[in-house]
3-methyl-2-oxobutanoate dehydrogenase (2-methylpropanoyl-transferring)
Amino acid sequence: MASLRLPRLIRPSGRRLYSGAASPSSRLNLPIDYKTTPLLHHTSSTLSESLELPGSTTSKSMNLYQAINSALRTALAKSEKVMLFGEDVAFGGVFRCSMDLQTEFGSERVFNTPLTEQGIVGFAIGAAAQGMKPVAEIQFADYVFPAFDQIVNEAAKFRYREGATGRSRIGILTLTLTRYHSQSPEALFAHVPGVQVVVPRSPSQAKGLLLASIFEHNNPVIFMEPKCLYRAAVEHVPNEYYTIPLSKAEILKPGNDVTLISYGQPLYLCSAAIAAAEKALGVSVELIDLRTIYPWDRQTVLDSVKKTGRAIVVHESMINYGVGAEVAATIQDQAFLRLEAPVKRVAGWSTHTGLQYEKFILPDVARKLMCRHLTVNS
């Protein structure tokens, strides 16, 4: 048998076959600089206009967990029907979102529960049925699955079952959307009629959306807080009571060539990818924050896509049967003749997310930029 000879790779003296290290200015997947991102209110001057608040509004710089704490304090002070409970809530919670609330409002309204998620949600349903406004905290989104039966078969169907009896208010259930435990189950709840699913992107958004969830809606609200933003995202938050409407998306940045749709923490990566794309490709990108995952604001998205002709949907949750699939299908169905390219999705891969592999599974700036390049040039 003849021997197989491989050609020798001749390397010129002093040269390597691989490129040198990229300069910091050419790297894409850099840590998000939350101190400079345009998605946060770094000064109080931009608050009044964006949140439709009076010019006399006062504000304070807060991170996300402090804004959640402020919203809960505001709600507890506004109505004696509001009650807050969950695992470790009495001493402030593992993320400190309920700090000092039991001291201020008493142990009958802010209290710990046993380690039983189905019990926590079941108690919340019963309290809401009796006219209270319960805020039931589940420490991690991954822990909510034992309570899935209570949410899907009881809370979500309560108004449907009761009909015109008048006992229809179910209040709010709050969950935390985590990254260490690595699951993003928002799409599971978005399959369920009768609930509303909210994911805030920032402290000021979180406070307004949470207060709206507690006081302005009869349906149970699954309020999912991105844990990685608890201390990272800092901005000015109004001190006064205010609400932000649910099921209403927000255009964070206008554009003409591509519509980018996302929610929660990935919006910061989207913003970084937009800056790179507009510099490298010369395109104008419109960025939309869904804010409410279900029921979502179809009209704002469709109006944008009809203008730009291209759409990309981004989320951390797995790509299969996700929020992006629903948004993409709606665009294809109702804006097909205005599309210049197929709708693209950039999302987590369909696999279990081990902590050490998280950065390879979740979408990053480079993947978003490549998708945008393919969309614009298709």
Summary: The longest helix spans residues 64-78. Confidence is low (pLDDT under 50) at residues 1-23, 176-180. The two ends are 49 Å apart (CA to CA).
